[in-house]
Amino acid sequence: MAYKVYPGKLHVSRSIGDIEAKAKKFDGNPKVIIPDPDIYEVKLKKDDDFILLACDGLFERATNDELIKYIFINYTNKKTIHENTGNCLDSIVKLAAFKETEDSLSAIMIGF
Do 15 and 5 meet the contact criterion of CB atoms below 8 Å apart? Predict the structure, then answer.
């Protein structure tokens, strides 16, 4: 199920600047969504393979474990890291689209 912000009826990532969600004259709430990001610092380990950054549309229909599974299914040692990351991204975006996500699909993958 997609979680939407009310008022405004938009997904969280697009509600930050939405006037219906924020402006009191439209029955909005200026505190409903704030644009201050959560920032985490993580130290990479020698056995880390990649970083995946993706929008909520991808995670709306797929779990972290499911995405990791699809990434490793599509990874092959016969291709360059650029070809592998492209193939892996294609597979997880197609997975979310096949599962009929209701939001946009965008992702960035950095392979090591």
Answer: yes
Q: Are 44 and 111 in contact (CB under 8 A)?
A: no
CB within 8 A of 13, min separation 6: which ones?
Answer: 55, 56
Q: What does the alpha-carbon distance between residue 12 and residue 25 come to, in Å, rounded to a whole number? A: 21
Q: How far apart are CA 36 and CA 105, in angstroms?
A: 22
Q: Are 58 and 89 in contact (CB under 8 A)?
A: no
Q: Residue 16 — very low, low, confident or very high, per pLDDT cuts 50/70/90?
A: low
Return the C-alpha torsion angle 87, 93, 94, 98, nearest 10. Answer: 160
pLDDT (tens digit per residue) in 30-81: 777 666 777 889 899 999 988 998 887 888 888 899 988 888 888 877 888 8
